[in-house]
């Protein structure tokens, strides 16, 4: 009886794999943040860096919302952390601060993507 129960539990879809949770949209938003994160880390001017930071913050906030809805707590937390770092840079006064901050935000976003790739939602 117990082996049958274990097989049934293993066959049940995880919450993140059920239709309507938006896991794919969360992953897409994380990927969509890559270009502005890279652009901000390599920004040629303060204005370009601020703009890239804003775009990245918006995409990462979106990713965190989708991942939260799918109960991907750790990946959502890392996406939220990256969004917060990027958000702080919207009004930065120094280009070098934007570059360093965007590198840190890229690291957090990469951790979220890698976690999803390796372990799925957790």
TrEMBL record:
This is Antifreeze protein. Residues 1-16 form the signal peptide. It comes from Belnapia mucosa. Keywords: Signal. The keyword Signal applies.
